[in-house]
Amino acid sequence: MSDSIDLVVIGGGPGGSAAAIRASQLGLRVALVEAEERLGGTCLNWGCIPTKALLRQAQVLRLLRRAEEFGLTTGEIGHDWQQVIGRSRRVVEELSGGVAALMRKNRVEVVRGRGRLTPSREVEVVPDDGDPVRLRAERVLLATGGRPASLPGVEIDGERVISSREAMVLPQRPDTLVIIGAGAIGVEFASFYGAFGTRVVLLEAEAQVLPGEDPEAATVLTAALEADGVEVRTGVRVTGVKTTSRARRATVAFEGPEGPAEVKGERALMAVGVTANAGGLGLAALGLRADRGRVPVDDDYQTPVPGVYAIGDLIGPPQLAHAASAEGAAAAEAMAGQGRGRPDPASIPRCIYSEPEVAGVGLTQAQAEEQGIEVKVGRFPLIASGRARASGDAEGLIKLVFGARYGDLLGAVIVGPEATELIAEAGLALAMEATWEELAHTVHAHPTLSEGLMEAAAAAFGQSINI
Ligand code: NAD
After folding, report:
1. 3-class SS at 115?
2. In percent, how much of the chain has pLDDT > 90?
3. The pTM is what?
4. Which terminal Cβ of the chain has fewer Cβ within 10 Å, N or C?
5. Which atom of ligand 1 lies at the shortest distance from residue 271's CA?
6. Does the annotation count 444 as an active-site position?
7. pLDDT band at 291, cuts 50/70/90?
8. If 0-12 CB within 10 Å is exposed, 13-18 middle and 19+ buried, where does residue 364 land?
9. Ligand 1: which residues within 6 Å by Cβ?
10. Does residue 238 contact residue 252 with C-beta atoms inside 8 Å?
């Protein structure tokens, strides 16, 4: 088998599977090595997909609680925790079968086991049971992703100190949960557990939740989390976690504005970022060093070792599923000599699926101003949207940032219902280098949420009709 392979991809997540399919479409013979039972990687099995199922369930629960507002009557509203978790796992199972079918359809050979490079640049695959096999190909693509990071001296024991992986399948809903870090994972789990009645304390070292995102969006999100009963504490740096299995408590120590303090919870969820899965791949023997945990690559995603490529979480931010997929496809095209080029990191959307959702693309206002660009900013508050009002979901804002000189779109941030869908229009506008007029003069259907983009574009240049 090994003589007939052009490319071995190690890792079957959104990055590796996109690369394998695209390479096969381009005529390469591809083998995909996957250590886990199911294809799809963290995103499908332990990340994006199951958490979106859980967040949807939280959203339905919130709506049910508001039934009266819509003129509806319900009986007592409760939940069955096992069913809540069970639905999210069923969604994963259904989709995982779909990835395997895609591989078959695209003639990608899936090889089960843990892959690593040998000093002679073969790929040794060690299955859970059975003998190792060796694959030789001209090219190898590393797409092994990442895993939850922790703080120095704190072990994620999966019991009192958990990662997102345990947080999405807890056998019982905790009464109290301390979440360390208010990035993507921290905020999404705060939104989920807050809705289900867990007392959540969300601790963030920076001055706002979702550091780096537009502060106006962070303010709307913080208010919504607080309305769900989440205690949001920013400007607090967690320094350690102590656990006592007998007392079934995690004690989280932090340095806050008033000095050192601590907070206790039934469990502590570590959500302080992601560490690349660069260990155990045999990189050192090939003279390949991860630099601050990142595998270095050139514009074609080739590492300093000829024929060895890397994409996704392994190569550093933005460590997002859709970035990995785009990188995987771009790497495959580069191998086939017809590269689309590296996706511009600024064009990669940032989507948070809390309630309300937060989505951004391109530069924030602060980033544009830091670059010395004179900007025009247009805002459309959802309270002015007929569609949002009709849906009873009018908390939020659409904010567009344009260059004052040419009126070109620089970035967008949306907080509110369907923000993660609405941001795609701004992404396309950025890719097309659209101006405010092109956005404002594109007739949008009424009533829709997307009209808000048209209105915000017009507002930036003083021509809004509806605000
Ligand atoms: P993150 O980098 O998004 O956020 C980590 C947060 O922890 C930051 O806000 C940081 O300031 C804070 N922090 C770090 N050290 C701290 C300390 N000692 N005390 C208090 N706060 C501290 O990482 P994450 O939320 O763990 O997510 C991991 C990865 O998965 C990221 O790359 C993220 O983008 C990705 N992810 C994305 C989505 C999404 O796009 N919807 C969802 C989940 C995860």
Report:
1. strand
2. 94
3. 0.97
4. N
5. 26
6. no
7. confident
8. buried
9. 151, 180-186, 188, 203-206, 211, 237-238, 271-274, 319-320, 351-353
10. yes
